[in-house]
Structures are given as C-alpha cells and as structure tokens.
Amino acid sequence: MTILLDSTLEVRCVQYRREFHMRASIDPTSRRILLRIGTHYGAITMPSDLGERVRQQLIRARITAPIVEHPRAERWTFITGPARPDGIDAAASAELFRLYATVACTGCQVVLPSAEDERTGYRTWIEPPPESAAALPPLDAVIEATRELGTRKLRAR
Asked: Which pTM was predicted?
C-alpha cells in the first residue's frame, strides 16, 4: 500500500533533518512531523506563562532552547538534549507536577510544527531549532529553571 504524503509536510520534515540535524519523521496516519525523545533529545512541556519566564531566565544565562508553542492549550514545549539515564528524582517530579510541567519520557514523540500548523496558528516556533543538535541545552538546565521560577510563584501566592 502506497501512502502519498503532502509535499509541504515532506519538505518541512526534510528541512528539520538537513538544516537543523533533527531526526524528524512523518507519521502517515496523523500526518504530523515527529521527534522521538531518548538518546538524542529531551523535552519538557509547561504552561506558557511559566515557559516565558523560563525562557527569559535561560536567555540571561546565555542558553537558548528551541520552543514549540501550542497556543490553544497555552503550553510551550522546550526541546533539549537527552535526559540523564537515571531520570529525575521523585521530589523534582512531584514539584514539576504541581507546576503542570511534564518531562517527556524516553520513547515518546514530540510533534514539531508543520507549515500547515504554522499557517493556522495551531503549533508554532517561539524559538527555532539551532543548526546543530550539539547546541541544544541540557534538559537539567531547563528543569532547574522551571523548578526555581515555579517555586517562586507558588511562594508568592
């Protein structure tokens, strides 16, 4: 059975692979561009207001991360370098849970913006990917900034 893919979807996926060296693939069923989390990539998703504060803190630390915005859900996903093999501890996990932040587990997939997503505003880039996967920030740095800023907001309540 041959499945024909939308050429703009294919072009965007190839762009992710060639220009940004991201190991993206197309899921023919959902017609989405996917990035597998694990050996090469990590991801953390959080509410957009917290995401904006995390982004600003990372910029102050001279760290940039590709960020995908999900406007209708009001959430941002930071694409990072891979997670440590031992993962995050229970206390950090509980703290992130209270902040509505989720660390993507190994083997899951993050959807990257397609041209159609961007045209409709369904999924867009806040920060585009770097030209090298080696430039991705460590997942731990983004988690630490999230915990620090989220804890400040919780204490302020």
From this structure: 0.90
